[in-house]
Structure formats: C-alpha cells, structure tokens
Amino acid sequence: MYGRGEQADWxxxxxxxxxxxxxxxxxxxxxxxxxxxxxxxxxxxxxxxARPPDQDLHRLLDAVPQAAVLAEPVQDAGGxxxxxxxxxxxxxxxxHPYHPEEVHGxxxxxxxxxxxxxxxxxxxxxxxxxxxxxxxxxHAAREIPVRWESTGADGVVRLRRxxxxxxxxxxxxxxxxxxxxxEEIARAAQRIARVGWxxxxxxxxxxxxxxxxxxxxxxxxxxxxxxxxxxxxxxxxTARPALYRALDHLLTxxxxxxxxxxxxxxxxxxxxxLVAEAVRDGDGPIEGLRxxxxxxxxxxxxxxxxxxxxxxxxxxxRRADAEHIVVQRLQDALQPRFATLAGLGVSTAVAYRPAEGxxxxxxxxxxxxxxxxxxxxxxxxxxxGLDAVALMSMLRHALAGLAFTGALxxxxxxxxxxxxxxxxxxxxxxxxxxxxxxxRHLLRWICAGHPPPVLLREGRAxxxxxxxxxxxxxxxxxxxxxxxxxxxxxxTVLLYTDGLVERRDQDIDARVEALCAAVERHAVAGRATxxxxxxxxxxxxxxxxxxxxxxxxxxxxxxxxx
Length: 562
Prior knowledge:
Distance between the termini: 80 Å
Number of helices: 14
Number of strands: 21
Shape: elongated
Largest sheet: 6 strands, mixed
Radius of gyration: 47 Å
Helix content: 25-40%
C-alpha cells in the first residue's frame, strides 16, 4: 500500500542529499584569531566583594518575572533535607494572589519561616529527594510537579497544581514557580490529539523530538533527542521507500511534504500523517527540517470501515434492485391487471399501486365458474419480495382450482387456511373470498382478517358488516362464517387491500370512512355506470395514496348491471 516493494538501497539518495547539504554548510575554515594579551589587574580584588550582599540579591530576584523564593535548607544528621527556611521572597511571589501571607514580609537570614508550614501539601517525598539531589550535585531540577493548598481572598481553600524549578546558589536553594503553563498545555494537547513534532539539524545530526512524538514511538515522554537512524528505523519496511523519497524531495527542492506513512509504536504498527518543511536561514542552504506527526490510525480504520460499509450497502442495493426487477416481472406474470366476467351482467375494474421500493403480496381473482356463478376474491400475502409473491401465487392458484368444486365459500376459506398453515409459520395472508349467484342477485362472502367490502348504492358508499375470521395460516383448523348480501342493479361492490387504507399515524376506521367519502366523490357524473368504472377505481387509488406508500394497494370494483 506504500508503493513498490523493497529496493536494493532504500536510503541511498537520501544519504547522498544529507551529505551534500552538510558539505555546503561547512564552508571555508576561518583564520585563527590572534591571542589576546592577558589582563593584569592593578590591584588584587577583595574576595568579599565577589559575594553580593542579600540586599543586592533581593533586588536581583525582584527582576525575575516568576515567583521566586530563596531558602536555607534544614538538614538532619544524615544530610537529608527536612525543610526549607525562607530567606528572600521576590516581588512576583509577594504580589501573587495564591502565595501565602506568611512569605510576603522580609525575613532575616537564618530566621525565615518554614516552607512546609507556609505551603501546606507542597512538601512530599519526591520533592525532598529532588532538592536533596540538587544540593548534592549542583544540577538544577526543572519543573518539579507540586501540589499545595492556598486560601484565596474569599476564604476558600483551593488545591494548586504547579511546577517548581530548583537551583543551588551556594549553600542555599532558589525555588522558581513556573507561571506559564504553555508547555504543560502543549504536552496535554499532544497527548490528546496524538500528535508530536521533530526537528532535524543536518549540521550536527541532532534530531529533537517532543514528548508527544516520544509517546507515539513508544519511548519515555522525557526523551529529548533521538538518533535519526533510530527514528527512521521505526518506520515499517513497506513504508520506508515512499517516506525516503518524500524526505529526499524536501531536502532537494525545499518544498513542503505531506505523506501518510506507517511506524512501529505501542502495539501494532500505527498509521502516521507526516507534514514537514525545510529549515533554512533566508536564502541560504537547507539546514534541516521540521516535521509534525499525527497518529491517524483510528481515523484510517474508521474510514476503511466506512468504505467497506458503503461497498456492502451498494452491493445490497444492487441485489435488491435485481430482486425487485425479478419479483416485479414475476408478479406481473402471475397477477393480471384486468378482470372480466362476460355474460353474467357484472362489470369489473381493478387498479393496483405498487409500494415504494418493494413488491408486496396483493392478489385478486375474478373467474366465471362452470355452474354459471362467479368467483370474486382479493387477498394480501404477508411480507414483501419473493416470499410474498410465492405465497400469493400459491393461494391464488389454489383458490382458482378449489372454486371449480362448487363448494361454498366457507369451505374454500377453510381449505385455503390449511394450505397456508402447512406452508410454514411465516405463510399468513388476509382475504375476502366471495361467490356471486346471478339468478338470486346474492353475494356470499367470507372475511379472513381483511378490511370489509364497501357497497356503493345510489351514490352513497358504506362498509359492509363482516363476520371477521382470523387470517389464513394462523391456526391449523378454522371455520369461517359467510355473510349474504343481496345486490340491486346499479350497485357497485369494492374489495381492496389494507395498503389502500392503513397509515401508521391514522386510525383504520377513519381511513375506511375516508375511502367511502372518496368513492362517493368520484362516483358522480355517471362514473359508477357504463364503461367509466375504471376511472372510478383509478381516481380513488390516486386520492388514497400518500407520497411514500410503504405497502402496495389493490382496489377491485364490480358493478351489477342487471
């Protein structure tokens, strides 16, 4: 993922560029300076004059912008520091709102107050060890983290977290409070953002690194420098060629670089974004480079997972589209969009509205039977897609065959129920199954968990009272009771599926009333008579359909002409 494989010499070009830049920086050797004549004082200096009095020292400390305290160490017999006696307090400490009142006044040498008492909580074993080491070696202890309690003007005791640098001045100790928390905040920012910086000086081959970068590389946070070969050795083998080429380009052209590389750190290799610029004095030769590095492993992993999810979503969408096309064609082949009953004095019309983004299980069956009667049915198989189409096809064709037996609709309902039940737990459906007797103007019908039919008579549409039974396939054995409806010439009966009336945010009874109102509105101007019955069902379906219809809908209307 980082270019080609390993080459014979990854860093050859980079090493040659570094060597050339170092030669350019050396230049000609300067001529040796003439030796200066020795300075001979006219009179010998008084040794006491070399030791400034405390008054002068006090003035000197007042010039220090940070809070500073000069203290006399109090040691035990073993030489361990047990306390510090305050000798001088500079003006910055005296003005500081959080430094205690006890240290604000002048103190005579050897008679200062106790630092442990003035700064409660500051003295700790780590602090004592640090100041003891300063006295022993003379080397300053920088930015010792301390905590101490201070009482503000409001009388509230607050815990202060600060850093103190300790120097040895003769037999005394100088404590300087670091007021500027920029470095502490910078450390925290590097840790939180997982970022660090590095500066490489070509003149002396020194690579300075920040605590943040040290942490990224799995080193101690206080590691100040790192040999460049060791730092480059942290780059993974596959990432080195691309990084070497980028660094060589920067040192050759002086152009900034922004590369994605991979480095060994804590745990698995980390993805690192490296942004670097050349360091030079004006128009002079390149003296080194300055870089900022950020650990983007988690971000890269998130982007990779997002890409994989997008690809999987796209694959699923393509499969869904392909399935939708297949199901739609299968449904069109199995479910005709017209219905006729020639010779029985019944006109029929049907309208179908597919669901948004899916194919449902709506079906209907209109057939003239050999005994001179008619089969009129509407149903809705559970679910969407291939499973719904398969169940719809099975029930529709089963009903067409069973109807030829001449059995009553009660028996047809019981048989369809058993067929659906034996097909599996998910194979359930609702239906209205009716048989029309033309000689008696009688419509006998059963309701298997389905919305009731609507009767349009003399311009008024009303739902018919149903003997409601359970949906098909819920119980193994079930009986259905038929309803007998006598019709008149000019009556229109409408069968429909729940997709036409069901809405999640509306009551089903209110939606059925809305359907009746729509039928009445569109039945005016003779639309319920003659060849315009199709216009009626089309107009009603359009009015009852929302902008995003989750289920498909079927409306079957048959008008009794005589």
